[in-house]
Amino acid sequence: MGEAYFRGLIISKLCNDPNYNQKFRKVEAIFDEPDEWLPYWEKLKAVLPTIEPKYNL
Predict the structure, then answer these.
(1) CA 44, 48, 54, 57 torsion: positive or negative?
(2) pLDDT for the residue 4
(3) Which domain of life does the UniProt lineage start with (predicted)?
(4) Tell me: the pLDDT tens digits for 1-57?
(5) Interaxial angle between packed helices 38-47 and 2-14, expressed in degrees from 0 to 180 and rounded to the nearest 10
(6) Are 3 and 32 in contact (CB under 8 A)?
(7) How many degrees, rounded to 5, is the angle at CA 28 between CA 48 and CA 53?
């Protein structure tokens, strides 16, 4: 299920979604507990700030 959240955040960031920060906080709360997705979440958090929006909602 984690993959769907990751894709949603990436798409939200690419589309310059005005609710991106709210969505990020929600997903961050989900992955706050250590589980199998935690290493991937840490990598995604490092990459998300470097993504430039390509579209505008």
Answers:
(1) positive
(2) 93
(3) Bacteria
(4) 789 999 999 999 999 999 999 999 999 998 878 788 889 999 999 999 999 998 876
(5) 10
(6) no
(7) 25
